[in-house]
Design brief:
The longest helix is centred in the N-terminal third of the chain and has 30 residues. A 4-stranded mixed beta sheet has the order 3-2-1-4. The chain has a 4-stranded mixed beta sheet with strand order 6-5-7-8. It has about 375 residues and is α/β, with parallel strands linked by helices. It is elongated. It has 10 helices and 8 strands. Helix 2 packs parallel to helix 6 and helix 3 packs parallel to helix 5. The protein folds into 3 domains: about 200 residues, Alpha-lytic protease prodomain-like (Up-down Bundle); about 100 residues, Alpha-Beta Plaits; about 80 residues, Glutaredoxin.
Length: about 375
């Protein structure tokens, strides 16, 4: 997988140049007007400059080909760049909060008019930078973290503008450190999202949006598959999921297993967007790893109808769905999951009446999620 993207690299350079101009303008303007909010915003913009420069370097290095020492290439550098951005954001926030507290106790006069003009210029420039990166913000974690930096700065500039208007109208200078604290909260929120996503990848977490129960069930439904064990899902970097699994199949010719391999890889790519797969075929369980799916020997499984009724945005609904998929994989039971998510009364989306779970036509849960043991028992009894 090659992440080389000349168009995105050019956009990063343009965004970087704009951010440098904003940083210098707000730093000088903050010192001149005496506005802590403007200085805080300039600190945020400096981190934008740092983030964009680091992200640009990461993009270039990540496009380097794999070698004997780095067999996956340099894709993880994107994740480390995002992690570094998140950590630096947290550090600068502490300094902003401390200085804001000092200014609240001892408010100082500020050149509100000049501060307002500089903040307005910064807002326009931040929005222009965000527009430059917007088309690629879903491409990878690194680009998304840089985009969040810029959006946070635009919100901070907006806060400074509001503060400037209030000070011009009322002379209440205490709003300046309050706006600074608001900027700090924006920084903390954006940095936490970036840190959480990057750490999840570095800790080999399953790719977001892919349930291992769904994958095990899909592999088990491929013709000729008897069992799936030692199944692992992780991400090399954002947008680059990988899978390895041991798949037990009937003792057959190379031609048959080649067809099965093609079917498995095609299904994983089309349904889960997993392109990098390592699948080991076996005719007897090697004893390595946990069995996550087991079918009847030499036969295709009979599906059990499982129905979920509720709102898919409800946490209890999501938990119920996760339990049923995980326990179906554990039991080696093929299920046909029917989801009815269009509930007429929006007020009942997450009330005690919903969601509801049916297995084989029998309602086994309503409102609260059933225990995993209960689900496993019903699945085995319905086969």
């Amino acid at each position: 997988m090659n992440h080389a993207n000349p168009q995105l690299e050019r956009r990063f350079i343009l965004a970087l140049l704009i951010s440098i101009v904003i940083f210098l303008a707000e730093l000088i303007g903050g010192w001149w007007t005496g506005s802590l909010a403007l200085l805080s915003d300039s600190a945020h913009v400096f981190l934008d400059v740092f983030a964009l420069a680091l992200s640009y370097v990461a993009l270039r290095v990540a496009a380097l080909p794999a070698d004997d020492r780095h067999t996956y290439g340099w894709h993880r550098l994107e994740v480390f760049a995002a992690l570094t951005n998140g950590i630096t954001l947290f550090g600068i926030t502490l300094a902003i909060f401390y200085e804001a507290w000092e200014r609240i106790q001892n408010p100082t006069p500020i050149h509100s008019g000049e501060m307002l003009v500089i903040a307005a210029v910064g807002l326009v420039a931040s929005l222009a930078t965000a527009r430059i990166l917007e088309d690629h913000r879903h491409d990878d974690l690194n680009t998304r973290s840089a985009f969040l930096h810029v959006i946070g700065d635009a919100l901070a500039s907006l806060g400074v503008i509001v503060g400037g208007i209030v000070m011009l109208a009322t002379g209440w200078y205490a709003i300046d450190p309050l706006i600074s604290a608001f900027i700090g909260l924006i920084i903390v929120t954006s940095s936490w999202r970036v840190l959480r996503s990057s750490l999840h990848i570095l800790f080999e977490g399953a790719p977001e949006g892919i349930a291992i129960g769904d994958v095990a069930q899909a592999i088990g439904n491929v013709a000729g598959v008897q069992e799936v064990h030692d199944l692992h899902l992780w991400s090399i970097c954002s947008g680059y999921p990988a899978l390895s699994a041991h798949v037990l199949v009937d003792d057959a010719s190379c031609t048959t297993t080649t067809t099965q391999m093609v079917s498995l890889k095609q299904m994983l790519a089309e349904r889960f967007a997993i392109q990098h797969t390592t699948i080991q075929f076996e005719t007897a369980n090697c004893g390595q790893g946990t069995i996550v799916r087991k079918n009847g020997a030499g036969e295709n499984p009979v599906s059990i109808e499982v129905k979920l009724v509720g709102a898919d945005t409800c946490r209890r609904y999501q938990l119920m769905r996760e339990i049923i998929l995980d326990e179906a994989a554990r039991a080696g039971t093929a299920i046909e999951l029917v989801e009815e998510t269009e509930v007429k009364d929006i007020l009942k989306y997450c009330t005690v009446n919903l969601p509801m779970l049916f297995i084989g036509g029998k309602k086994i849960a309503q409102g609260n999620s059933p225990s995993r043991e209960k689900v496993l028992e019903y699945l085995r009894g319905a086969r």
